[in-house]
Design goal:
This protein has 188 residues and is an alpha+beta fold. The chain has a single domain, classed as 2-Layer Sandwich (SSo0622-like fold). It has five helices and nine strands, in the order H-H-E-E-E-H-E-E-H-E-E-E-E-H. The strands form two sheets. It has a five-stranded antiparallel sheet, covered by helices on one side. It has a four-stranded antiparallel sheet with strand order 1-5-7-6, with helices on both faces. A hairpin with a 2-residue loop joins strand 8 and strand 9. Helix 2 runs parallel beside helix 5. The radius of gyration is 18 Å and the shape is elongated. The chain starts with a helix and ends with a helix.
Length: 188
C-alpha cells in the first residue's frame, strides 16, 4: 500500500484523542491547530509540559504516574501528592518536570527541515527529523527539564526547603516552555 499524506492526515485528525487527558493541553491548543491548518503538516502528539511524580522503571506499563499536572502546582499540592506516593514503599519515585513536545508529520523532507529550523530559532533546541520509508516525522522538543529521585522505599529524601526550591524551579520552567509555544505559534 502506498502512503498518501493527505489520507493519513485526514485519518489521524479524524480520530478520537487517545491521550490520558483526552485532549490537547490548553497552552498548546492554538499551536497544534495552526500546524494542522497547514496543508504540509499535521500533529500526531503533543504535550505543553508537565510536572509529575513517577515510579522509575525500565518497563513502560500503566500505573507509573502517581501524579501528573500540565499546569503549575502549589507547595501544598506537592506535599499532599508526596504523602500519597510514599505508600509505594519499595520503589524509587522521581519528581519530574518535562518540557513541551510536539510530533508532526510532514509532507516532504524539505517541509520538515523548514519547521525544525523555525522551532529551533524559537528555542526548541532539541528538535529533529525522523524519516522512514513512508513518513517524515519531526519531534519538536524544548529544553526545560528537571528530574531527581525524591522518595526511596517510602522515605522522602529532601526537606521542605529543597522541595520549595525544586517546585519553584519546575513552575518557572513550565512558564518558559509555554513562552516558547507562543513564540513558535506567532512565527508560523
Amino acid at each position: 500500500m502506498v502512503y498518501n499524506f493527505d489520507n493519513s492526515k485526514k485519518t489521524v485528525l479524524g480520530k478520537l484523542d487517545k491521550s490520558n487527558i483526552g485532549g490537547w493541553d490548553k497552552p498548546i491548543v492554538n499551536l497544534c491547530e495552526k500546524i494542522n491548518k497547514n496543508k504540509n503538516y499535521y500533529t500526531t502528539s503533543s504535550c505543553s509540559g508537565r510536572i509529575m511524580l513517577i515510579i522509575e522503571t525500565l518497563d513502560k506499563k500503566s500505573g507509573l504516574f502517581l501524579f501528573r499536572s500540565h499546569g503549575k502546582i502549589s507547595f501544598d499540592e506537592l506535599r499532599e501528592e508526596i504523602e500519597k506516593a510514599k505508600a509505594e514503599s519499595n520503589k524509587i519515585i522521581y519528581f519530574k518536570q518535562e518540557p513541551c513536545v510536539v510530533a508532526v508529520a510532514c509532507r516532504e523532507v524539505g517541509d520538515a527541515q523548514k519547521l525544525v529550523n523555525l522551532a529551533r530559532s524559537c528555542g526548541w533546541k532539541r528538535s529533529g527529523i525522523t524519516t522512514t520509508s513512508k513518513k517524515n516525522i519531526i519531534e519538536l522538543f524544548s529544553t526545560e527539564k528537571l528530574e531527581l529521585p525524591i522518595i526511596d522505599k517510602g522515605k522522602v529524601l529532601v526537606d521542605d526547603a529543597y522541595l520549595r526550591l525544586i517546585l519553584r524551579e519546575a513552575n518557572n520552567r513550565l512558564e518558559r516552555t509555554w513562552e516558547k509555544i507562543k513564540k513558535l505559534e506567532k512565527r508560523l
